[in-house]
Design a protein that fits this description.
The protein is α/β, with parallel strands linked by helices. Helices cover 29% and strands 19% of the residues. Helix 4 crosses helix 5. Bound molecules: beta-D-galactopyranuronic acid (GTR). Beta-D-galactopyranuronic acid (GTR) binds next to loops.
Amino acid sequence: MKILLFVLLFIFTTQIAFSQWNDVNYDESKVPQFVVPNPLKTFDGRKVRNVKKWEKKRRPELLEFFSENVYGKVPGELKISSVEVVEESNDAINGKANRKQIELSFEKNDLNLDFTILIYLPKNVEKAPLFMGYNFYGNHTVTEDVNVIISDSWARNNESFGIINNQLTEQSRGVRDNRWAIEKIIDAGYGLATIYYGEIDPDKDDFTDGIHPLLYNDNQEEPANNEWGSIAAWSWGLSRCMDYFETDNDIDESKVIVFGHSRLGKTSLWAGATDQRFAAVISNDSGCGGAALSKRRFGETVWRINKNFPHWFCANFKEYSKNEQALPVDQHELIALIAPRPVYVASAEDDKWADPRGEFLSAFYATPVYKLYEKEGISTDKMPEVNQPVQNTVAYHIRTGKHDVTDFDWEQYIKWADAQLKNN
Ligand code: GTR
């Protein structure tokens, strides 16, 4: 009898322990209690009272922590070896825009890699401010424009998009145009630049392809524990585009707004944190490892993301799987690394997996750092109503609908960019 009771008790407690970590929590009352790390207190407990202290001590130590333990360090420098204008036209987007397709090439370790940036620029603007961001299925999916070149890089199979044998095809032209309000962007006087993320690093747990091998040491086969995962590799690619924009007279390189959705929203945040040339950053539904606070363990968790996508973060990040409480930082401090530049965090009501409240709170808890610079952030921890954006230097909205990028989102981003950058 005693043994039976013991066995039952054992099963019961292990079940509880198991479900605490393995069930996906969507219940606000079950969010664990935790202390939000103070962005204005150094790891050795000193208060940061001014911009100087923030920039000299706190910002560098936070950046270092995220580099070493979350996204991974880029292990060396690699410059563009050549730039080629592969195609251009002055008759795009109903005659309103010029189009360029620019190939950037890189060489090292007897290897090479190239990727193609698709750029639309409004005709009536001399040096255009620019939204730039990655796409998931190739440049030709963001528009019906028949002149957009189809990438021959590896792509995840998707039958409804006509992607079989990991090759992109004509069948997927324009299938994602609903996510890219190009004409609205052009009409508002902005350019748009996009790249297929698979050209920089195919999104699979394999470090023999993409950009990583170009920076391996002799005999290295995968990044070291503190070296770049795929998100850091994709961010690196955005910075190389920025290198190119600095040389293109049609682009205002001081007004490049880096945008990304979901895993590519995690990427835009990391790009904004690591490269201060980006004038503003937008994270659309970026969720776990993006804007959402990890310690809330709401929706997707650190353990789950590391298990399902082992290549996204650096190996050191696995230390925090089922162990978020040990993290000396949280994602609001990633947002704070973007200060004082404008940052927009956006959520979708039905995208519980990405933890909208956790995304909102990150914007709120990053605000003290913006305040140091006398910039306005999010002043209350009460979430705004759906479809009621709060647009300060730190901006936030939660819109109705699912995990997606919609015209509503773009309309907000344009309005906010006008106020933050264009009219300044
Ligand atoms: C999901 C992943 C999320 C998010 C999303 C996406 O499967 O769990 O973190 O990044 O993919 O990128 O669409």
